[in-house]
Structure formats: C-alpha cells, structure tokens
Specification:
Shape: globular
Radius of gyration: 14 Å
Largest sheet: 6 strands, antiparallel
Strand order of the largest sheet: 1-2-3-4-5-6
Strand content: over 45%
Number of strands: 6
C-alpha cells in the first residue's frame, strides 16, 4: 500500500489469520504507523480487516472482494467504512 507515487516501500509485519494483526509503517516525512486486525478471511473471495491510524476514525474497516475474471485477471472491489471523510 503506497498512497503516494515514489514513496519508500513501507515496513510491514503480518500475522495472517482471522484475529491476527498487521502493522504497516509508511514513510511520508515522518513514519506513519497503520495497524489493524483481520476480521474475516474467506479465501479466495473476501478479506475484511480493521484500519487504525492517526488519520482514521474509530470502527474503520476495509473489505476487499476478489472476482476471478479468467485468464489471470482478478477484479478487486475495495470498500472502506468509517473513512475519515468522503474526499
């Protein structure tokens, strides 16, 4: 996850199981930590996790849905609930 083109690759720690946590350390000037917990892992169709950072609101969650389009193509739908603002 790199929100700004050309930014350094973030440091990542992942415990990939339902209930497991992750940390992403983005470098945008200062280091900005993002953390969360895997709430649902339904391979290969769906991934749901909480999202916490200095720029998120309480109860923020991300849902990713994966649809096989064939020929090594996948459609990804991303829904981020409780995002800080619409923009």
């Amino acid at each position: 996850m790199q929100p700004i083109p050309g930014m350094p690759q973030p440091g990542v720690e992942v415990y990939k199981r339902e209930g497991g946590c992750f940390s992403i350390f983005m470098q945008v000037g200062d280091e900005i930590p993002h953390t969360g917990r895997y709430l649902e892992i339904s391979r290969p169709h769906k991934l749901v996790f909480s999202w916490e950072s200095a720029f998120s609101t309480a109860g923020s969650t991300v849902t990713l849905r994966f649809s096989d389009l064939g020929e090594s193509h996948t459609q990804i739908e991303l829904v981020h609930c409780q995002f800080i603002d619409e923009e």
